[in-house]
Amino acid sequence: MKPNFDTIAEVLRNAHTVGVASHIRPDADALGSTIAFALWLRECGKEVTAYNEEGSTSKFHYLPCHEIVVMPPSAPQTFDVFVALDTSVKNRLGSVHEAIAPGTPILNIDHHISNENFGDVNYIDPSAPATGQILFEFFQHVGARISPEMATNLFAAISTDTGSFQYAGTNERTFSAAGHLIACGVDVSALSRAMYDSQPRRRFELLRHALNSAEFDDDGRIATFSLSLELVEKLKVLPEDNEGIIDHLRSVEGVEAAVFFEELPEGKVRVSARSKFPRIDVCKVCKKFHGGGHPMAAGARVDGTLIQVKSDFLKALSDEIRN
Ligand code: AMP
Ligand code: MN
Ligand code: MN
Q: Which ligand is nearest to the CA of 292?
């Protein structure tokens, strides 16, 4: 039977120790959802531990109560229930995965269409544009009081994953959630300033480089940008700095898909792909490279050199655009 919000409440009802975590290279949906859910569980009297592989990175210090998210220990921990949020496949939990003792029941709450249902209970709603929206609707369902801190985390989660309420999937439910969250105490202007107008100078230097070196293929329908390890070293950029750079490529007229290739130390390349039109499914392309995500925003980690991965991926993307 497909689980509903009552199933989630039931799974958590008798749990005393609860772990909560989200995916590696977290975005505000991952961390904001983790924090909001952890805060609610604490209100319910649970003993809660919140993890992310990177802990709470400086970029997200604007999220209220961000300090409750810590890096996972190396030894496995036992929980009555472990909640995975915004995580499509188990290995996207990164090192958090090793901190969960085998046999721990996993509650998987997510909005990725590519979710592999790795939990014991899987609540997956691909119609929600953010995990934060699912949690908001769950809190409403159970009649939870949403504190200003919870509301701000959920608003940040929804705002980022919808590209500031612009992407496909942003619907009446989304604006209704945002409206309710504002009524619960979100300071939209202060939060937006922290999220969108407080970029570190390092990121600006990366953007400058990206704009200078962007390439356009397939008659300008595909825009790409690559980041080599050499450049990371030179510009002293952190992994968190490159989120959103790709949006500048997609914003160009005539561009139908944008791809960002990032060389990783382990002989892998991180691919981040975005589509401008629903008919171009970048998740389908990323799945061919063992990745996943959403139809219009997806990613993969691929073995190989920057040049090779770029060539293989662009070929597959070109096929998707033409068909
Ligand atoms: P990103 O391009 O990293 O912002 O990711 C875009 C979307 O694709 C997010 O929803 C990610 O969860 C998903 N995604 C990114 N990389 C992977 C991967 N290696 N495997 C599965 N899903 C991914
Ligand atoms: Mn995410
Ligand atoms: Mn998300």
A: 1
Q: Could you tell me which residues come within 8 angstroms of residue 44 by beta carbon, excluding any fewer than 6 positions away?
A: 12
Q: What is the pTM assigned to this prediction? A: 0.94
Question: What is the phi/psi pair of residue 164, to 5°?
Answer: 55, 50
The pLDDT tens digits for 39-89 are: 999 999 999 999 999 999 889 999 999 999 999 999 999 999 999 999 999
Ligand 1 atom 6 nearest Cα: 298
Q: Is 46 helix (H, G, I), strand (E, B) or coil?
A: coil
Q: Domain 5-196: which topology?
A: inorganic pyrophosphatase (n-terminal core) (3.90.1640)
**Which tokens is 316 given?**
């597959």
- CA dist., res. 54 & res. 72, Å (int): 9
Domain ranges of the chain: 5-196, 202-322
Give the Å distance between the CA of 196 and the centre of ligand 1: 21
